[in-house]
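Title: Comparing notes on inverse folding

I've been comparing how different people in this forum approach sequence design from structure. To keep things fair, I'm posting one structure and asking everyone to reply with a full sequence. Here's the target:
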């Protein structure tokens, strides 16, 4: 019994001595609870919408004011022509456009009915459905308030139109998202254990005395995995195109370029994890738990980032998956080019440079 008790005490010493393990054991449950509590929600809030008001009368202005007063929408743009709708959708920020017909107020009085068109960006079907439902609900509530003193009720008839994904196929959302998650996790896991394996097997000393410079070791660790990750990307895109009829509206060259950039960012992030991890187990757990949850929850893959609390929206900016999902949806579904996606491209490039630079610095520190 004394031996068993001593063995148990020794195990506790091992656990509490490893600070990284303690962070994973006690920190990750807290992070998961916070992420699932704030990020996992089907509600929408602060969604940017635009208005095309052909009537410009008192009734349309009241409706716009009612929409702006809700916590669900922000009217960020007023457009004057239908040709601007696709342009504003391609920028990716506005999720819906509300179109008022000519003579809106006159039609309500003369015909007891007026039409409003709701045009949504359906590259994210769940968000498009929610936006359409919430806007329709606001219009119906306004109609109810308007009819309280009317003997003959007025009707405001919403007409819905979906851009880019009119059938609201959920696969159009899941193929880009799954591709992002797989590339991030596979690339990061493969590279995160690369340097850690060298330390555990005792071959790190060979690298330390070799004539290779730190950046050469880092690049050498990343290079073989690039081809494996590219193969995964090609397989996913082919399955999406041939099996699920996923469109590829944009440039194939730009799609390949952005995919390679994202793969490099994931591989570089994996190398960074491996340089600061002592064991393969720690590196793998950090890759799985530290990357999987943020990639799924905070990238905009399933849940809209605009509906999350401001701190989580800020944190999402440092997640490479967020920027790649914007890029791949823009290329596949909207057919936009680098003139629209240049900012997201530069963000990925900056992340690659930052991750590789930090990896080299950590590697140099271990050499000293």
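Reply #1:
Here's my take.
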């Amino acid at each position: 019994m004394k031996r068993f008790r001593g063995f148990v005490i020794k195990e506790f010493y091992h656990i509490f001595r490893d600070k990284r393990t303690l962070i994973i054991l006690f920190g990750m449950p807290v992070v998961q609870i916070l992420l699932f509590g704030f990020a996992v929600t089907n509600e929408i809030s602060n969604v940017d919408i635009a208005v095309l008001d052909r009537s410009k009368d008192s009734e349309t202005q009241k409706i716009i004011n009612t929409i702006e007063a809700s916590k669900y929408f922000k009217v960020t743009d007023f457009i004057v022509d239908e040709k601007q709708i696709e342009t504003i959708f391609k920028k990716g920020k506005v999720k819906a456009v509300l179109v008022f017909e000519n003579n809106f107020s006159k039609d309500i009085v003369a015909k007891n009915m007026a039409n409003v068109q709701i045009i949504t960006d359906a590259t994210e079907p769940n968000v498009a459905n929610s936006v359409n439902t919430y806007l329709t609900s606001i219009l119906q509530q306004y109609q109810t308030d308007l009819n309280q003193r009317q003997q003959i009720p007025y009707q405001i008839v919403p007409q819905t139109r979906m851009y880019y994904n009119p059938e609201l196929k959920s696969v159009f959302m899941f193929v880009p998202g799954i591709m992002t998650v797989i590339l991030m996790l596979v690339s990061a896991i493969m590279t995160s254990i690369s340097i850690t394996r060298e330390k555990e097997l005792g071959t790190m000393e060979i690298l330390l005395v070799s004539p290779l410079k730190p950046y050469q070791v880092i690049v050498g660790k990343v290079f073989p995995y690039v081809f494996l990750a590219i193969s995964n990307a090609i397989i996913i895109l082919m399955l999406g195109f041939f099996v699920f009829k996923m469109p590829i509206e944009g440039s194939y060259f730009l799609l390949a370029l952005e995919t390679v950039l994202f793969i490099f960012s994931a591989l570089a992030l994996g190398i960074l994890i491996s340089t600061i991890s002592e064991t393969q187990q720690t590196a793998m757990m950090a890759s799985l738990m530290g990357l999987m949850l943020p990639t799924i929850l905070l990238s905009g893959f399933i849940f809209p980032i605009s509906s999350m609390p401001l701190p989580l929206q800020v944190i999402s900016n440092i997640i490479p998956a967020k920027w790649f999902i914007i890029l791949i949806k823009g290329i596949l579904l909207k057919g936009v080019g680098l003139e629209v996606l240049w900012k997201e491209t530069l963000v990925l490039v900056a992340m690659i440079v930052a991750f590789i630079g930090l990896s080299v610095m950590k590697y140099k520190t271990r050499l000293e």
